[in-house]
Amino acid sequence: MREQLGKRQRSWDGRGVLGLAALLLGAPALSRTLASPDEEPQYSCFEATREGTGTSETVAAQLCQGARSDAPAKCFQRVQEKGFLADPQALQLCQYTTPEDDPASCFLKARTSSFLDETQLVQLCRPPIAELLQFCPYGAQRQ
Length: 143
What we know:
The chain is mainly α. 68% of the residues lie in helices and 0% in strands. The chain is built from nine helices and no strands.
């Protein structure tokens, strides 16, 4: 009996998992799980951050969590090159950036035309979603 159960379990581990995933999640979800990591926006953002700045994997992963494009990486690289921001401030400024946002330009312009300190400039120029997410107890949920 135990031997038969072991055989069933082994066969389930192999081919049954994909079938179960297709059944429970639907075919589109299954095709998404089989997609190459290069096609995922979070992964392309992560790679762009690491390649462009030599930033640690931990910071790159935090920056690109929930990213829908490589916009956070571009922002991060720009403020580190021209704004001389340390990783924590650049991360806070650029996380959740979308192609429509441009927190790097806001920061660089405001820095030359105001007397605000870096912390205030980062708060001023962060993407609007970053401010809203601080009120979410469990973080942002992807749809």
